[in-house]
Amino acid sequence: MDEATARERVVSTADRLFYTRGVQAVGMDAVRTESGVSLKRIYGLFPSKDDLVLAVLRHRTERWNAGIAGALAGAGTPRERLLAVFDFLAGWFREDDFRGCAFINVFGELGGGSDRVAEAVREQKASFRRHVAELVREAGGPDHLAPQLVLLAEGAQTTAAISGDPGTAAHARAAADTLIRCALGDAGDAEGTTEA
Amino acid sequence: MDEATARERVVSTADRLFYTRGVQAVGMDAVRTESGVSLKRIYGLFPSKDDLVLAVLRHRTERWNAGIAGALAGAGTPRERLLAVFDFLAGWFREDDFRGCAFINVFGELGGGSDRVAEAVREQKASFRRHVAELVREAGGPDHLAPQLVLLAEGAQTTAAISGDPGTAAHARAAADTLIRCALGDAGDAEGTTEA
DNA sequence: TACAGTAGAGAACGATGGTTCTCCATGCAA
DNA sequence: TTGCATGGAGAACCATCGTTCTCTACTGTA
């Protein structure tokens, strides 16, 4: 088997298992069994479980970025692009295996014990904050709007995970719409969104 | 040692250790050593580690409820009482050992493996939602406002934990203020809060 | 066929976990 | 003093974990 293939199989298997059951609840043996890659090879590719966790987080970051990019691609105006973030969340929350934000979960589980993991999570969240700030600038919104929208997105992820209610995304979207309308100072023409 | 005293010592010790390092990273031996209560006695009080975790969550719920009640006690108008929730968060985020919401952390770590823990976390979050809904009703706000404010509070907790920035609470408060003013339909007289 | 090198299966190893058990000191009733 | 119940300290037990090692099968080459 190709090295790149083996790497990809291990990472995507570990991603699924870690996300579903938690990192510490999944042994390397389970990763081997489900990926079909031998322990020897896994440890050749990743020096330790911690490194595998970091690789999984990188993998998640790429999928997250691609998902967001895809959601934004269909949106026209800057304001629609901001709201598209919440539509993306809505679709994600409805997936069968949705179990909250992997970064938040991993941070809660390992953040106190592994500086590298904590740093990776921090960087992913900071990157999302920068992205939203950029979207806000494009929409002509004030600087304080971006962190507020980010809080809604983060809160929606944990609340949807714990309550199991995908409708959480709609609450977040409605709140975001209100904040955006207030910040942009107009009454909000577009696309039939009122409070829900 | 009194049974109630032993129980209290074990729970508060486990609470501190679990919160700081994560549940699975703390052995029962550490709980014994730091609480000064023997393993035999601990297992007499709590049949398993899972039961201890549940007791810790109950303990956290009581402290959370007391903290919120204390914060609300100093607030006058219903609108101030809503915003007082975010002032309470601000104080909490500034504590040295703040590491996010214990319920969210535990849910991420054990929610997939222990139904009882998942249920306890769900119940705590549902209880908070009901409380905020009650405050919104007292303020004369519409039903949809409460879940929006809850999302801000939840998002603030995870964001403050990961970023380490206590100022997160101010963003949440400002957003909440905006949502409240929009929902109540007036321009917002009170207590010098503008966007931040 | 003989050989070298690679990789997989899975045993082995040392550490640690949750839980239970043994043994001993203490205090109190008779 | 004797006997007995209580509870503490910590060893013991069994499972599991992350990691490494051994042995074997296989591949390609001369």
TrEMBL record, chains A, B:
Annotated signal peptide: none
Annotated transmembrane regions: none
Superkingdom, taxonomy of origin: Bacteria
PROSITE patterns: HTH_TETR_2 (PS50977)
Keywords of this entry: DNA-binding, Transcription, Transcription regulation
DNA-binding region: 27-46
Domain HTH tetR-type: 4-64
Protein name as catalogued: TetR/AcrR family transcriptional regulator
